[in-house]
Amino acid sequence: MNDIQFHHSQTAHCESGVISNLLGHHGLKISEPMAFGIGAGLFFGHLPFVKVNGVPGTTYRIWPGAIFQRVCDRLGVKMKAQKFSSPEKGMATLDETIAAGTPVGLQSSVYYLPYFPPSYRFHFNAHNLVVYGKKDNNYLVSDPVMDTVTEIDPESLIQARFAKGFPAPKGKMYYPVSVPTQVSFEKPVIEGIKQTCHYMLKVPIPMFGVDGIRFLAKRVKKYPEKLDDRRAALYLGNIIRMQEEIGTGGAGFRFVYAAFLQEAAPILKKPELEKLAGELTQIGDLWRNFAFSAGRVCKSRSADNTSYSDLSEMLFRTAAAEEAFFRKLSKAI
Questions:
Q1: For the Butirosin biosynthesis protein H N-terminal domain, which residue ranges apply (predicted)?
Q2: What's the pLDDT tens digit per position in 29-50?
Q3: Is residue 2 assigned to a domain?
């Protein structure tokens, strides 16, 4: 039995949760919202040419791994990250590292994690978790979206780490090799906010940021004429799934970022960030309302006859609210 003492905290999102738990283990206390904000995790993109399970992909956060990289760069944390050509090499290196007393972050597929309920196990290859030891040949797991630590058998962990598909994890593992015990958060917070505002307002590609929300709104309105009923419901259903089931989704990420702004207000001595946090929470509610209405349309249970055109209008209103919010946030910083 491995006797690493690892403190597990449940969080809303896997990547920012692993950051908080791993850095906390090494003495650098950082909350999940602070990690998410410094890492500029909030984002939006609709990519009709990137298929997820055969339908267009929608993302409500920045690409996997970016939050971790930015947090480490901005806080002066040095990380070691590795990928492997074979499961044998990947598992041997994992065993050596945890035997040396170092908890390890892993990228994995949700589908092969047996401690997840069956309804949550689908092919998503960018889930992050921590392995911190072994017991009776099983691996001890701190998965930040679970309420307590758990275990996984070697065969399932190999399948999860070396799953096929996009993005292929290739056994990716990572862990800190140098962590400052004390840091100043002011500059990293400002850099994180500025980067988020840039990505939401100024990326000159119509599929990203607030323009991306409008891009999706236009496409949703045309689903009934461009697709048959089944495909339209499938496309709409995937938007909801990416919003509400992968990580914390569109609404949840807005709530996490609002919590970050509440933490940032006293650090930057800017009480106006508290007010902006409240505004972003209301925007999160707009996303939740959209998901609820879209779900009823998918299941043909809309009592008020909500249409795809109505859903499109909801997205346009959300885009306007997010644009106004990020312009205020950019001005505040």
A1: 13-144
A2: 999 999 999 999 999 999 998 7
A3: no
Is 0.85 topped by the overall pTM?
yes
Asked if residue 65 is part of any domain, the answer here is no
- Would you tell me the crossing angle of helices 154-161 and 87-99 to the nearest 10 degrees? 120
Q: Residue 271: what are its φ and ψ, rounded to 5°?
A: -60, -20
pLDDT in tens, 142-171: 999 899 999 999 999 999 999 998 788 999
Residue 22's domain comprises: 14-30+78-178
Alpha carbons 98 and 107: distance in angstroms, whole number: 16
Quick one: CA torsion of 48, 54, 60, 64, rounded to 10 degrees?
Answer: -110
Q: Which two tokens stand for residue 66?
A: 């970016």
Flag whether 212 is in a domain: yes
Compute the distance between CA of residue 122 and CA of residue 118 in angstroms, rounded to an integer. 8
Query: Rounded distance, CA 19 to CA 285, Å?
Result: 27
